Amino acid sequence: MRRLEHIGLLALPGLTFLAVIFALPLFMLLLKSFQIDGQFSLEEYRLFFTDEYNMSVLWRTLRVAALTTIVALLIAYPTAIAMSRANGIWLSIFLVAMVLPMSVGVVVKAFAWSIIFRTRGVLNDILMSLGIVDTPIRMLFTETALIIGAANVFLPFMVLPIYAVLRQMDTRLPEAAASLGATPVFRFFNVTLPLSLPGVVAGCAFVFSLAVSMYVIPSLIVGERQQTLSMLTARSFLYLRNEALGATISSILLIIAISVVLGSSWLANRLGARS
Amino acid sequence: MQGSAGTEPDKRAYLDVVGVGKAFKGTTVMSDMDFRVARGELVSLLGPSGCGKTTLLRIIAGLTSADAGDILLDGRAITRVPAHRRNISVVFQSYALFPHLTVAENVAFGLRARSVPKGDIAPKVSEALQLVRMRDFADRPVAALSGGQQQRVAVARALVVDPVLLLLDEPFSALDRKLRETMQVELKSLLRDRGMTAIFVTHDQEEAMGVSDRIAVMNSGQIEQFATPSELYARPRSSFVMDFVGLSTRMRGRVSKTDGPVMQIDTANGMVLAQGDYGVGTEVTVGVRPELITPVAGENTIKVTLADAMVLGAKTQLHGASHPEDRLLCEVPGIQTNLTRGQDVTFGWSVKDTLVYEAPR
């Protein structure tokens, strides 16, 4: 027992580093959001939640994050299934395709999407040359474009946890289900899906946390026109010089992130305990 | 038609595997496989790992597709019918119970998959669990069960859907010896009572002999012999079958003289007589079942120096010193304490009990 406690000391440098560099500033930020002229006050929060514009930004942020998570999940799940069944060279190709884009800066990827979505961009050119539309569709600066772009950037964070769970799953289980008369659809909904839920929960938690706090992607794809919470935070600090507002929004983002992490780990534990 | 060996002509095939072939990545696992099982028969596929027995089982279940040939069940071709429409249940080696479901939910799975009315499911599940004496465990998660209990649940889950055929892939291998023997007796009588046709895959010859009416001994994608346990043991068709099923004394030798149906074979331990029609000069393997050998002179007699005398309780095993590729083994009933290592003894047996196989070149 005592040996174990000594080994715990090894984590001290890491914890100290995090405490000084991360936790302390965060705490100061949190403190700032509860202060007006050196007095404790909830006024900043009251102001934020009663402001219609702020609320619309909050809802848009949550909506975009939720839809991004759903789109990413719908694309990632079949991909993860294909990957879990792939072997050799195909598996390597899949893994490289998942991991390599992560090494490309998010600015580059967001900018690439803006080229595709532009009024005279790649997508509109294709649609027009195929005769599907006559005039270019406005795609850039829309929420749809933002969700598609964000889902693309965050896709690996959804695919990899689901892939990891599916890969570990006993391949005999779907076979046993088939021999018991289960159709492929019944097998999926009653065996594969429930057993992969821990991976789905983890992936959704990753993507939602990333999407709720993303800054570069909305800046490049939708611009200033449709603000999100993190853009509003940046604007409060950089342009409005309203540190209290910035701190308040940051704290709200932090609370959202913490609830997602706690909620998902609770859910994952529950699902894990059952299987 | 090696696969049909031992089948009486009047036995109509219930399961009929005709000319099935399978290759994985260019490597042929089996070719032109024929295999017939009658209704209500308990059959084992016995062989070393990699002999293709599990592949054959998976092809019958529809979990692996055959490259060639046909599978007929009760006269109907099912070769291209997907697994979930074959109504063939499989009990897997690992049992493959669904870890996210309880015992009762596992058993109910096949009924739900077949859209059995909700009201009919519970009584059927309860009856199936009763059959394997697991009703008290209905609401437990399967992870909390022991190996033997998991196997019972797997059997209940497979039988509750009234399959036309039950396939079992090494169903006892995860159990310890004592439990394994109990479960074998239990399962056999359960399947008999229901008139179930079942195929066991196993590499354990004792298990195969214990549970089956007939055994197909497989070796590198071929059925070497398909016969009743007693026939397999008494009249193995090849030296592979002789070695795989039961123990035996075996010696390499060469035919030195033939006299009508009797051959004279020279071995490292002296001359041995056997029935057969191999020509003079043929390299052969001679085999004798150990309990047919007595420690007194017989029609065939060899001198042996004892390397070990193992008292096994009901019988004593006498191991003779031999060339490493030969084996000299004799079993005498009861406890023999007067025989010790280094002692010279006589092994004697009759000509008709001598098995002879042409040695592979």
Explain what the structure shows.
The complex is a heterodimer of chains A (275) and B (361). Chain A has 275 residues and is mainly alpha-helical. Chain A has 13 helices and two strands, in the order ααββααααααααααα. In chain A, strand 1 and strand 2 form a beta hairpin. With 361 residues, chain B is α+β, with helices and mostly antiparallel strands. Chain B has eight helices and 19 strands. In chain B, the strands form four sheets. In chain B, strands 6-7-8-3-9-10 form a six-stranded mixed β-sheet, sandwiched between helices. The longest helix of chain B is centred in the middle third of the chain and has 17 residues, at 177-193. Chain A binds chain B through residues 170, 172-173, 175-184, 186-187, 190-191, 194-195, 274-275, and chain B through 61-63, 82-90, 92, 94, 96-100, 109-110, 112-114, 141, 143, 157-158, 161, 167.
As laid out across the biggest beta sheet of chain A, the strand order is 1-2
Number of helical segments of chain B? Answer: 8
Oligomer: heterodimer
Output the structural class of chain A: mainly alpha
Question: Residue-averaged pLDDT of chain A, rounded?
Answer: 88
> What is the end-to-end distance of chain A?
31 Å
Report the uncertain regions of chain A: none
Domain unit count of chain A: 1
What is the CA–CA distance across the termini of chain B?
A: 24 Å
**Could you list the spans of chain B in which at least 5 consecutive residues all have pLDDT below 50?**
1-10
CATH homologous superfamily of the largest domain in chain B - what is it?
P-loop containing nucleotide triphosphate hydrolases
Tally of individual helices of chain A: 13
Beta-strand percentage range of chain A? under 5%
Radius of gyration of chain A: 23 Å
| Class derived from helix and strand content of chain B | alpha+beta
Helix and strand pattern of chain A: HHEEHHHHHHHHHHH
Using CB atoms under 8 Å apart, which protein chain pair has the greatest interface? A-B, 21 and 30 residues
Main sheet: strands, sense, barrel of chain B: 6 strands, mixed
